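INFO worker-7 received task bundle
INFO bundle size: 2
INFO processing item 0
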Amino acid sequence: MPALHHGGMNTPHTTSPVHMAALLALAFALAPAHAADTTAASQMQRWSDVSGKPVSAERGRVFFNSRHGGEWSCASCHGNPPTTSSRHASTGKTIAPLAPAFNPERFTDTAKVDKWFRRNCKDVLSRECTPVEKADVLAWLLQLDGKTPPQAAKDKP
C-alpha cells in the first residue's frame, strides 16, 4: 500500500515551526470563548433588551435583599452589601465579592453568569429569574463602587 504522507512509510512526519504556529493560531481561533467574553454592563444591557423594560437599581436592591417567600435571599450567601467575601448559607464555602467593582472577574464569562443565575435563582425563588430581575440586580451591583453608600444609591445604572 502506498504511503499517504510525504517521505514514504518509514519517514517520521515532522511539522515545521511555521506550520505549528498556524495550527495553534487556528486552534485558538476555533476554541469557544469561555472567560472574559463580556462585562457586567453588557450582561445588564442584554437582559434589559430581552425584557424590553428599563432597569431599576432600587428594584434590584430590594430583590437582592428579599426572601421571596423562601428561607434565603441573594444576600443570605453574598452578603449585604455584596462587596466582601462571604460564605454560602448551607455549605459554608467562601464566595468572592459579587459586586464587579470589588471583584473585576464577576460577570465576565457569559456561560458562568447564566449557570450561576439559573442555579442561585432556583435556590432563592424556586424558579429562574426573569431577564428584568437579572438586569435590575446588575444595575444595583454596578452602583456598588465603594464611593456611594449601598442604601443611598438610587436608580443609577
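INFO item 0 finished
INFO processing item 1
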Amino acid sequence: MATPRNRPLGADELERFGAELDALRERVTATIGQADADYIRRIHASVRWTGIAGRVLIGAGAITGGLLGAVLHPVALTVLVLGTLLLALSKILENMELGHNVIHGQYDWMQDPRFDGRSYEWDIAGTADNWRKTHNWRHHTWTNVRGMDDDIGYGLLRIFPEQRWKPFYLAQPVVAVVFALLFEWGIAIQDLRLGRWFAGKVTFAQLRAQARPVGRKVGRQVLRDYIVFPLLAGPWWLTVLVANAIANVIRNVWTYVIIFCGHFTADAETFSKESAIGESRGHWYLRQLRGSSNISGGRWMDLMSGNLSHQIEHHFYPDLPANRYAAIAVEVREICARYGQHYDTGSLPKQFGQVMWRILRHAFPSRPRLRRDAALATATG
C-alpha cells in the first residue's frame, strides 16, 4: 500500500508533476547571472580569510601558551579556541557551500577556473574525482535505490529495515559515532569498495592501483594539517596539531549530521532496482522527493549546510546554484502539496533525532515495512 502521507498519482498526474518541476527549473535557469557569481566569490573569500585567521590564531595561541608556560592559560586558551573554531568554520564552508556545490557544476557557466566543477579539488581526504563518481553520478542518479546507491548506510550501517540484517550491525551505535568523527576518511575510501576485496572479487594489486590517487590526496592533507603547519609553531607543534585535528573533527561531525538528516529521517524511503527501471521524469522526481528530507532553520542553517538544508531541491536540481534553493523551495512545496505528496522538513534536532532512532532501532533484526516503492505506489488509471 502507498505511504499514507502520499496520494497515489495517475499516469497523467505524474506526467504533469514532472512537467511542472521541469518548468520551474527552466525559469530559474533563465535568471542565473551576476548575483550568483558574486555570491560564490564571497563564499570563496570567506573560506580563504577565515582559514587564514584561524591558522594565525592557532599558532599565536600555541606560542603564547608556550611562552606563558601553560597551554591552558586563559589568554592562550581563548586564542586557541577562537582559532580552532574559525578554522573549522572555514573547512565547513569550503566543503559544504563551496566545494560540494562547485563540484556539482553549479558554477561552470562562469568559466572561472576557480569554480570549474570538473577540476576543483577540495579540503577533504577524499578526492574530488571519486566524489564526482560516487556522489554526483551514483547517488544522485540512483538515490536510495538498494544495490545501486552506496550512500545507503555507506556499507557500515543498517539504516532501513529493507537492508538485510547481520550480527555486525549490533555494533552500529558505536560504529556510527566513530564514522561521524572520521567522516572524511570514510568518504576517502568509499569508492574503493573494500568489501569486494574482502570477498575476493578484486585482487590486492587491483585495489592498490585504484587506491593510489586516494593515497596521494591523503598524503597532501596529512602533510599540510599535521606536519607543515604544526612545524611552523616550533617547539609548540603539538598544540597546533591537536587544534587542527579538532577543527577537522568538527567539520566531519557537522557534515555527517547534515548529510544523514537529508537522507535517513523517519519518512525517507528506499527503492528496489526494478522500481527504477524505465522510470519517467515524474517518477524520478517522485523518488528524489521520497528519498530526501529538508532541515528548517533559516539563512544561517542554509549557509552552514551548503544549502543542503534544502536537500529535496538539491536532489531535484543538483546543478542549479544552491543559493537559489530557498526561493525555489516555496514553489516546490506548493507543487508537492497540490499533488498530495509529503514534503519532509523539520528542525535539526527533530531530523537528527529520527536518524539516531533509525541507527539504534535497525541495529537489531526487523522486518521490512509493508510499503511499496514510489514508482509502484502510483495509480494506473
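INFO item 1 finished
INFO post-check item 1: Confidence is low (pLDDT under 50) at residues 375-381.
INFO post-check item 1: Residues 66 and 235 are 8 Å apart (CA to CA).
INFO worker-7 idle
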